[in-house]
Amino acid sequence: xxxxxxxxxxxxxxxxxxxxxxxxxxxxxxxxxxxxxxxxxxxxxxxxxxxxxxxxxxxxxxxxxxxxxxxxxxxxxxxxxxxxxxxxxxxxxxxxxxxxxxxxxxxxxxxxxxxxxxxxxxxxxxxxxxxxxxxxxxxxxxxxxxxxxxxxxxxxxxxxxxxxxxxxxxxxxxxxxxxxxxxxxxxxxxxxxxxxxxxxxxxxxxxxxxxxxxxxxxxxxxxxxxxxxxxxx
Length: 233
Fold this sequence. Notes:
The protein is α/β, with parallel strands linked by helices. It is 41% helix and 10% strand.
């Protein structure tokens, strides 16, 4: 078992000791899972990310998250990969910038599904590890989480700042210790497209899936597919 050097986190304002964690990947959720676990809070991980493209990338992120959850002894819920619905929700926003309305719509969809599961399975509190990434707008994420929780009376979205109290530093420590796969873009096909465009503009090669790791052992990689053939007509 990992022993964290991070101070114990402050429990949710409601005092509930049972939390559903929406997770996007192992590198972002590792520190959050550890911190919640060591605070004595009963935790379940909920993996719902239909935005992640292509499917090979999705499976890499999910399977790595499952591996770490099993190591920690934390229950893991593998939700649906309903990409057609995600494309439908984000239709017309294909060229919006990162942190814009497409991202808000994406967070809304994922958090609404998380809130639905929480309500059906007796969770009064849910949260997400998305905000620990320095590439994300925490106010945007928290706003989406609070809005999703408000759909059910008495439900709380826990807005704890996971970057604070050494959280960001510990996130990278765990990622290196576990040799997690290092994602090089947010996850969706449009993020992949824009990231590759920036890389090519600066003379770098396109992203290869499954290559970059925080640890020393890479797996075979393929060039990330930016096609949008999954998009509903």
